Amino acid sequence: MPQNNIATPEYFIWETHGIHTGTGNDHVKHGVDELDKITELAIAKGHPNIAFIIHTPRLTRYRYAAEKRLGVKFIRGDNAYFNYPNQIEQLKLKYGNRINIRFGIELEWLGPDLGMQWNRSKIFQAQDADFVIGSLHFSREGIPYDGSIEETEELIKLRGGLENYWGGYIEELIEMVDSTWEMIQVVGHIDLPKLFAPIPQPLLELDTSDHFLARRMRFLLEMISEYNLALDVNLAGINKGCGIYPDISILKRAKQLDIPIALGTDTHTLQNLGNHHETGIHYAHDAGYKHYLSFSKCIPEKRPLRNQAFKEEEYKVMNLGIEMLNLRFEDSKQRRIPKFSFGGTFRTFLEHHKNSTSLGEFEAIRIRKGNKSITISNTIPQNQKEKVKGLFSHHKDKPGVLSMIFNALASEEINVETAYLNSNNDGTATAFLTLSGDDDSVHEAVEFVKGTGGDSFIEIRVGDILEMQQLDKNKNYLLEVDGVNLPIAISKQMILSIHNNTAGILLILLSALASQNINVIDLKLGQRGQKGYAILSIEGNAQLAGNILGKLGPQFFETTLLSLNGVE
Fold it and tell me: How many domains does the chain have?
């Protein structure tokens, strides 16, 4: 975690719809160009996080009146947008040890045809964004909903009245959500037209009204819920005089549907940095919310609205577990809301998480989707003190050494059942393995390693009364995967493998990693019937590691690279 020694404000939001970056010399200024200045201001205020956002460029026919008057065509042009990820990367290099920096895009809905293909291209041009907000600013007629009173009156007249004006907006939002739900995480300012047009009464009576506007808004919210999207609670309306987006009636209906929220100030000037955080927190709380979401690499992080009643460290543990579990799923399934079980001190979460269950005194959080689960804790698990038979190795901590052991064992048709590997941080590592196979074959394998390993091995032996090693000390620990015991200290780069539980299978993975000069610094093995489980911490080029995981063969049922943003 970045180190900022200034105390965090009592009311602080990890924003999603945060600070709009400017367009520099790209025609019409929109947002903050002085990114260094506003980052330094956030650090000075004690903010642990700053979130930037940029509008995607628009098709030419979608222009505000002022842009038409100026003859501007290439709205919020490509130059600023293309440079945006690089700008953020430079900010991270400069300030990343002092503040957490996130960035996302606001995807302009421009219709389902060319506009949809245009938007897909803009998604690809903003690789590695932390979040994507889907927003509707322009009507299908090309007139903006948030331009001016004159433009709003023009569209109301064109559509034949206020109710049809709002009805058209809601239908376009339904179209946007149905078309882009796999591309976005958040639906932006859902009642944006109230900036210049009053909200019709049926939208303020969503629980009772049978008016067509109420019915369509209820359907829109149900769609957002079904697609597991979050709703933008946008504080910019405070400064604009129309109130927070969305209206409290809409937000309460969203809470009834368990739609998560993401908060932001939608800031366009230096002066508005962090404004209205307290107001926004109280507003969401009044609607019934106790939590909100932030995003990292498009993976949701759950955060408490009010820090006084919760421990931030415990939320970090839970978010890390969610991140690890989500990485095991394809993108479309990462949005499915997981189920939770809480134990020990984490049981304080039980009252705040619907349908969660207790783990009793077990100091852990279990997070599950379908038949996949992760159990995580910030307390080091203690090994049993029993003495067991196994193989002990003290060897040089470098790529390929561990695979020598597995190679020798496989040559004697010996399967490794469980493994504990620890890096000693002195250039050496120790490993403890329990094995299947007869004693003579195990000794043959050990002698082979001694004879061929050169100076890589300091000591390697088989014993009947070896004691299990303690885990490396760390901030957080993985305890179980799918209920299989795999206690390991969590590191930034890990690999999860589920494979055939037979001799030589894991050797394939270890050999592949060694071939790319990737070192295994920690390893735990477990098993359930015919399935073997392995969790590895690695050092080396993570991209190379990811590239080889899909090439290991059909004996591997799951191989997941866990590149973890939530690890400090």
Answer: 3
